[in-house]
Amino acid sequence: MATWFATTASLGAIQARWSLSPFQQALLTSSVQAGFVVGTLASALLSLVDRADLRRLFSTSAFVAAVANAAILLFDPPDPAVPVLRFISGMCMAGVYPVGMKLVATWAEGDLGLLIGVLVAALTLGSASPHAIAAIGGFDWRVPVAGAAASALTAAILIRYAKIGPHLAKAPPLELTNALEAFRRPALRLANFGYFGHSWELYAMWTWIGPYLAASFSARYGNAPPFDSRLATFAVVGIGALGALLGGYAADRLGRTLVTAAAMAVSGTCAIAIGFLFAGPAWLVMGVAFVWGTSVIADSAQFSAAVSELSERTLIGTMLTVQTCMGFLITLLSIHVLPYAMRFLTWRYAFCVAAVAPFLGVVAMLRLRARPEAQAMAGGRR
User: Fold this and answer.
1) Are 335 and 30 a contacting pair, CB within 8 Å?
2) Containing domain of residue 353, as a range?
3) Does residue 168 belong to any structural domain of this protein?
4) pLDDT category, 13, cuts 50, 70, 90?
5) In 106, 268, 274, 283, which residue has its Cα 20 to 30 A from 293's Cα atom?
6) Residue 370, domain member (yes or no)
């Protein structure tokens, strides 16, 4: 997952040498989202995750992502080839993230929320890692890109040693209408609506929290900030791994809808609050940012766990793929909206745009909690 934010982490170094418009800046990340949407859409229509060999699909996808990411080093960041290669990387992630969730689900024994939480914690650390690599590598934009390519190549090798659990369902017949089950069934629809609210906020935050911290520290401290904004971004995004683990542990014991609704309420509040702290004391900004980084991802795995529990066993992979496809389609918009919100509303109010969706997600999850199908989640704990 390091390939996702490989160029985003280098944005400061890129802007120091090349002048990029807000659209071009957002495109460095949104092109990955677009590729992921196309890849997951094709996968969902073909029920690929439920029909293909999971390890081979994962390994091939990670290998191609590594090659595409390494090829970026042949071009300057403003070159049109870069978003094309980022798009290819995103398509390959459709063969990694949903596949990983399906693989984890084959091992679940009453702890599905925690197991997918572990996977999302790994996703979070992987997504955060380019920011740490950028700080270690200095001001060379190529270092995070090369590091991400190496990480993806390592993943392509390691996944071959993973084992498939005993709960792998029989592959369903190929029907293009299988993907529509995600919206035909009310309980699945509500779980997906909750995920959509979460997704709008999550990737807007992960993409733009780095520029926000850099601008906030600069406005307060000039050229002598107390923290390197790149390491601060790594810490804020990376702490989400703890949130994913705690969310998974709590959801298996307290209920999926309760944990997801609470997490979205907290993260939405942080999205509003952090703007008013712009240029404030670093310790206060980072304190709210850490709470936001923890809560914004704490619910992510639980939407996937809920869909796994509410779906027919033979279609779990397809339903997970549909969910992530639509969720990341929504992130395409939120990632591009934020820089314009920052320009016209300033950092003080920009993240308020990200805060609206999680509160709508809270409504969806509370409605799901009231439905009888919710008893199928978390051993009846909803």
Assistant:
1) yes
2) 2-162+179-380
3) no
4) confident
5) 106
6) yes
